[in-house]
Amino acid sequence: MSRTLADFVAATSWADVAVQSIEARRSILNFFATALGSARDPVVMAAMRSLSPFSGAATSTVIGHSQPMDALCASFLNAISANLLDFDDTHPETIIHPAAPVAAPVLALAETRRLSGQDVLTAFILGVDIECRIGNAVSPRHYARGWHITSTCGIFGAAAACAKLLDLPAEGIANAIGIAASQSAGNVENLPSAAKNVSVGNAARNGLFAALLAQQGYEAAPCAIEGPLGWARTMGDEPDLPRLLDGLGKTWEIAKNTYKPYPAGIVFHAVIDACLLLRERIGRRIDQVDSVTVQGSALLLARGDRPVNNERDARVSIHHCVACGLLLGAAGVAEFARETVVRADIARLRQKVWAELDREMPDGAARVILNLSSGEAFTEVVVSPRGSQAAPLEDRELEQKLCDGVRTGQSNWDADRIIDAVWRLDAAHDVGDLVRSLRRPLASHQTTSN
């Protein structure tokens, strides 16, 4: 399997993927938006303080900051910041968040070499394809067993993309993928904590590390993924090879990518949309809400029927998403921040919410039934929420998301410059120069990251 994927990566050129570059740039724009939104989050700052004493040559940009770090550290930091707020992109078939583990090391590596925008976009598209195809091959049981699929599969995309940028031959790319198999980790139990983001950061950093090791001649077993004691069987079940290989080079997983309008788990977006609709229907008679029942799939309940103790719980909570939609009429970063999560009125409404299993409801859909003290009942069903493939975010919405991220993350980066740079990435002669230009403080804002 590794060699088949490696042959594909090695043989693919810009001409083969150019048509996918629009979606790739949308993905990278969303990546910058989410990374900027978390730029000065305490989790990111703690990771920066931990890594700074050990950083090597400061070659690569930390998004939202002025001080660069080495490529491995920058990969880690940019991946965790892009994933931190649960606001990043989503591949619906696997629930992988593709960009964070792949874009972070690709851009960090690009700053160490004179690589064109076409080189970077080609590698990024290939990396997303590899991580999502491997995810397809082990879904849904891999995630159901407790493996955090963005982390466990993201490392393969990072390794393949970075090996492509290093211009490794097929054998070297196969070794990079095999080396990545020895470093794949991350569990679902940690989703409501910062530990989740550690595995996403490691997917980015260790994927780059795997490619660098392969460049130096490190080897891996030919069947490191699908062998009897390989990655797939030790972390789940026998891989579905047809799902992995069907349409290889003809259909592209990045074409399926979706982008979130709300910083919450993707399975909760239908709940939020339904509650926003109900808020309008009841004329904002929130004080008369007697109970709210949310019906959805087993995945929705498994992920979101939980007590809310902090802002991380809130981003994966059915109950808090209902409160945001009904009481606040919004579900942005502020609505999932700690000061909102602990509000007494929000907590009271969360206590009125009940979750019920509906085995007929597809993942990502929800039925919300609202009962008022008057005896009136209202129901909304949402199958295709905003941001889904059926109702995708427009370019202008992604641009606004980035502008909001700059404000939320309190960086001195200029949103218009970033947006312009990403849209013209395919024409860049040196992506390193382009990215470095984004972190140079403007004349009127001479600030540093710390």
Descriptive terms for the model:
2 domains; four-stranded mixed sheet; 450 residues; 6% strand; mainly alpha; 2-methylcitrate dehydratase PrpD
Assign the CATH superfamily of the largest domain. 2-methylcitrate dehydratase PrpD
Quick one: CATH class of the largest domain? Mainly Alpha
Give the low-confidence spans.
442-450
- Rg estimate, integer Å: 22 Å
Q: Please report which band the strand proportion falls in: under 5%, 5-15%, 15-25%, 25-35%, 35-45% or over 45%.
A: 5-15%
Structural class: mainly alpha
Q: Please state the second-level CATH architecture of the largest domain.
A: Orthogonal Bundle
Main sheet specs = 4 strands, mixed
Shape: globular
Please work out how many helical segments DSSP would assign: 22
Through-space gap between termini: 45 Å
- In helices, the fraction of residues equals 40-55%
The total strand number stands at 4
For the largest sheet, list the strands in their spatial order: 2-1-3-4
CATH fold topology of the largest domain: 2-methylcitrate dehydratase PrpD
Order of helices and strands: HHHHHHHHHHHHHHEHHHHHEEEHHH
Description:
There is one protein chain. By secondary structure, this protein is mainly α. The chain has two domains: 2-259 and 392-439, 2-methylcitrate dehydratase PrpD (Orthogonal Bundle), CATH 1.10.4100; 266-382, 60s Ribosomal Protein L30, Chain: A, CATH 3.30.1330.120. The protein has helices at residues 2-11, 14-17, 21-37, 42-51, 71-83, 99-110, 117-138, 141-144, 149-165, 170-181, 195-215, 231-234, 241-245, 269-281, 298-304, 311-314, 318-328, 338-341, 344-350, 395-409, 415-423, 431-439, and strands at residues 289-296, 353-357, 366-372, 377-382. Strands 2-1-3-4 form a four-stranded mixed sheet. Strand 3 (366-372) and strand 4 form a beta hairpin. Helix 4 packs antiparallel against helix 5 and helix 17 (318-328) crosses helix 19 (344-350). It is globular. The protein starts with a helix and ends in an 11-residue tail after the last helix. Mean pLDDT is 94; it is low at 442-450.
